[in-house]
């Protein structure tokens, strides 16, 4: 469990801290007191995002309110509620997903999930289905994929077969839609499911979901659309996106951004998991102790066979 200080002293936690780009430390941070609607969570596992977290690591993250260093990264944490404010006492004992915390003193909580102890409003936590252990860190990505799909036409082409691309495929099928085509340029990630774009000459896709995060693909994708087709931007892009207007004009192309998931998306994807229609198996490929965070982050960002790296906090004080 996390450290419980004597009465009157601030609670503190071991946390991953990005002091500045590419300079990571594992150190203790004091925490702001819990309020009446807050829960205190002892974290068992936290995930490392290869999208937004990589941009924070590299110092390439576009400006967001509250962005700055030092910061606690991460938004994919699973743990158990061990304490709670007076309005949240019924949450004690529940295993929950936590998308981060802003209760750190002397470090920014953007997104604030990579720590042994988190304090956050109970409304931001999600009670996990029975039996969902470390795979619970995938809930935010699954809800992001679900949010994209229910926001419009289901994909008939998915670009990128990383974790998000695989979740888009699995959720599309779990919801009863036809299986889409999947593109992946990395041969090691195709797994007999995805194909290289050069092996596909189709140019009538109604709905293309880009999960690659590559900002230089827009013209290529527009050329593969059917008339009035839609490109869904499901990844996160650090650079400005652009496309040549004439081809998009002739195709009457539409673009949609899948933004943050909502509570109803979490409920929807949780129902798919508990009903057995959606499996999260095989998506967590690497696990390391939180004390090895300095080694885990380069692996998460640099190893092509790493889909999802999680940090194990259970043996940390």
What does the model show?
This protein has two domains: 12-134 and 284-312, Medium-chain alcohol dehydrogenases, catalytic domain (Quinone Oxidoreductase, Chain A, domain 1); 140-257, Rossmann fold (3-Layer(aba) Sandwich), CATH 3.40.50. It is globular and about 60 Å long. With 317 residues, it is α/β, with parallel strands linked by helices. It is 21% helix and 25% strand. The termini are close together. The strands form three sheets. Strands 3, 4, 5, 6, 7, 13 and 14 form a seven-stranded mixed sheet that branches. Keywords: Oxidoreductase. InterPro entries: ADH-like_N (IPR013154), BchC (IPR005903), GroES-like_sf (IPR011032), NAD(P)-bd_dom_sf (IPR036291). Residues 35-130 form the Alcohol dehydrogenase-like N-terminal domain.
Would you spell out the secondary-structure blueprint of this structure?
Blueprint: E1 12-20, E2 23-30, E3 38-48, H1 52-58, E4 77-84, E5 95-98, E6 117-121, E7 126-127, H2 139-150, E8 157-159, H3 163-174, E9 181-183, E10 205-210, H4 218-222, E11 225-233, H5 245-251, E12 254-257, H6 263-274, E13 286-289, H7 293-302, E14 309-312
Parallel strand pairs: 8-9, 8-10, 10-11, 11-12, 13-14
Antiparallel strand pairs: 1-2, 3-4, 3-6, 3-14, 4-5, 5-7
Helix pairs in contact: 2-3, 2-6
So what's the CATH class of the largest domain? Alpha Beta
Derived structural class: alpha/beta
Distance between the termini: 6 Å
Overall number of domains? 2
Low-confidence stretches: none
GO molecular function, one term: bacteriochlorophyllide-a dehydrogenase activity
Protein name: Chlorophyll synthesis pathway, BchC
Keywords: Oxidoreductase
């Amino acid at each position: 469990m996390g450290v419980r200080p004597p009465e009157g002293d601030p609670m503190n936690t071991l946390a991953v801290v990005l002091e500045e780009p590419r300079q990571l430390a594992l150190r203790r941070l004091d925490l702001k007191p819990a309020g009446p609607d807050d829960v205190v969570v002892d974290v068992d596992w936290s995930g490392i995002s290869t999208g937004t977290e990589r941009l924070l690591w590299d110092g390439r993250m576009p400006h967001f309110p509250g962005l700055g260093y030092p910061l606690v990264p991460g938004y994919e944490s699973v743990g158990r509620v061990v304490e709670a404010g007076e309005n949240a006492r019924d949450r004690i004992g529940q295993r929950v997903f936590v998308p981060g915390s802003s209760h750190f003193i002397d470090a920014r909580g953007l997104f604030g999930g990579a720590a042994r102890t988190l304090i956050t409003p109970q409304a931001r936590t999600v009670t996990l289905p029975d039996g969902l252990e470390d795979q619970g860190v995938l809930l935010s990505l699954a809800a992001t994929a679900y949010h994209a799909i229910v926001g419009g036409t289901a994909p008939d082409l998915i670009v990128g077969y990383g974790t998000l691309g695989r979740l888009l495929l699995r959720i599309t099928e779990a919801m009863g839609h036809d299986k889409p085509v999947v593109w992946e340029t990395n041969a090691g990630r195709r797994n007999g499911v995805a194909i290289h774009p050069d092996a596909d000459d189709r140019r009538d896709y109604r709905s293309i979901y880009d999960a690659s995060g590559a900002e230089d693909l827009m013209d290529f994708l527009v050329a593969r659309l059917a008339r009035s087709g839609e490109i869904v931007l499901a990844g996160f892009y650090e650079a400005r996106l652009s496309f040549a207007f004439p081809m998009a004009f002739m195709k009457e192309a539409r673009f949609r951004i899948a933004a943050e998931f909502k509570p109803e998306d979490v409920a929807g994807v949780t129902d798919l998991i508990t009903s057995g229609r959606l499996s999260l198996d095989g998506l967590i490929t690497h696990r390391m102790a939180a004390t090895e965070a300095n080694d885990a982050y380069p692996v998460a960002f640099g190893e092509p066979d790493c889909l999802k790296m999680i940090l194990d906090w259970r043996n940390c004080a």
